[in-house]
């Protein structure tokens, strides 16, 4: 989705031949970096972007392999903020205009039209939207074949959901069973974009109770984690289970808001949550924080970001150091006229 993500992937040892560069707003420097790195392809989302990639490829005397992202207008039945395949979405090219855009791509000298891409949303808990969207894409592939435009890659996207509370999302094998019959005879390479389903339930946010507070209408548990550490509850109204690290069957169940120290009324990790009574000093585990957690963290209120710790069996590894106050001003310079 960015030059920075490409840099991270390459640093992590991901082969460039397995990297696809997506996103609606790639700038020319990012396009140049991706071409120089030898990535598999770009997912293209507009005519302007297509022409920009063609221009940069021409400057570099190369060809850019691309897939066009098609917006199939299928309702993924998820939160509107993470629904990406509807007509009003900023993502993709309308299915009604897709054939025209593929013809444009085929006419550009420095573009290699290799694939078609679709991605309808995130945290999907039903297979039907996946299947419906893929069927629309495959209809387009047939139309392209009639126009002499051969497709070598089909990117079926991602978005398979996980269990945060009481959801019962399909497993990857269920998705495979549903879409494999549609893809079996196409003689195309299938690309997938699983993310949350791999890492979502592999991570927790560990936080300590600072205080409890009895308001006129609510009881609050004030913890040292905040919306700047995990923004999903504030941004999406998302549910994350919160458990005491040291569980006891004797704990009284109370209804509380779990809130952080940030100066926003929207700074909460849970609202009206029935959970074991917590006391100052207790450790709480905010579950299912492995996806869209640390990657969306910020330094709002000048709060240093927390460390990341990887646990493997009995091994504990700090894979990202805790930020210090000095890190907050690193790179900042006071101009001479303010001194």
Second-tier CATH architecture of the largest domain: Alpha-Beta Barrel
Number of DSSP E strands: 15
CATH structural class of the largest domain: Alpha Beta
- How far is the N terminus from the C terminus? 39 Å
Largest sheet: 7 strands, parallel
Describe the structure.
- The protein has helices at 3-11, 28-37, 47-59, 98-107, 128-146, 172-183, 196-199, 232-236, 325-329, and strands spanning 20-21, 41-44, 64-71, 93-94, 111-117, 153-155, 189-191, 205-214, 219-223, 242-244, 253-259, 268-276, 283-286, 308-312, 315-320.
- With 339 residues, the protein is an alpha/beta fold.
- The chain has two domains: 3-194, Alanine racemase (TIM Barrel); 203-329, Lyase, Ornithine Decarboxylase, Chain A, domain 1 (Beta Barrel).
- The strands form three sheets. Strands 1, 2, 3, 4, 5, 6 and 7 form a seven-stranded parallel sheet that branches. Strands 10-13-8-9-11-12 form a six-stranded mixed sheet.
- The protein is globular and about 70 Å long.
- The relative contact order is 0.09.
């Amino acid at each position: 989705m960015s030059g920075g993500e490409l840099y991270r992937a390459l640093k992590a040892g991901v082969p460039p031949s397995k990297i696809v560069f997506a996103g609606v707003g790639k700038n020319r420097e990012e396009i140049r970096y991706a071409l120089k790195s030898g990535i598999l392809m770009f997912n293209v989302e507009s005519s302007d972007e297509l022409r920009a990639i063609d221009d940069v490829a021409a400057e570099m005397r190369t060809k850019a392999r691309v897939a066009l992202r098609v917006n199939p207008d299928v309702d993924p039945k998820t939160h509107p903020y993470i629904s990406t395949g509807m007509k009003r979405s900023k993502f993709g090219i309308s299915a009604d205009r897709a054939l025209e855009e593929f013809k444009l791509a085929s006419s550009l000298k420095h573009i290699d039209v290799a694939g078609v891409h679709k991605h309808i949303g995130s945290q999907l808990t039903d297979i039907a939207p996946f299947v419906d969207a893929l069927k629309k894409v495959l209809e387009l592939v047939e139309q392209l074949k009639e126009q002499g435009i051969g497709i070598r890659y089909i990117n079926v996207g991602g978005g398979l959901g996980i269990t945060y509370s009481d959801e019962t999302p399909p497993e990857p094998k269920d998705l495979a069973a549903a879409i494999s019959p549609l893809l079996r005879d196409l003689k195309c390479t299938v690309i997938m974009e699983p993310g949350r389903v791999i890492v979502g339930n592999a991570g927790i946010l560990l936080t300590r109770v600072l205080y409890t507070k009895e308001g006129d209408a609510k009881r609050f548990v004030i913890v040292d984690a905040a919306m700047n550490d995990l923004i999903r509850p504030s941004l999406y109204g998302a549910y994350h289970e919160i458990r005491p690290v040291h569980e006891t069957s004797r704990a009284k169940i109370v209804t509380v808001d779990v809130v952080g120290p940030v100066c926003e009324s929207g700074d909460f990790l849970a609202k009206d949550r029935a959970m074991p009574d917590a006391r100052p000093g207790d450790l709480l585990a905010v579950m299912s924080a492995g996806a869209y957690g640390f990657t969306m963290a910020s330094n709002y209120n000048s709060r240093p970001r927390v460390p990341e710790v990887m646990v493997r069996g009995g091994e504990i590894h700090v894979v990202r150091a805790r930020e210090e106050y000095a890190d907050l001003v690193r790179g900042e310079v006071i101009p001479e006229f303010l001194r």
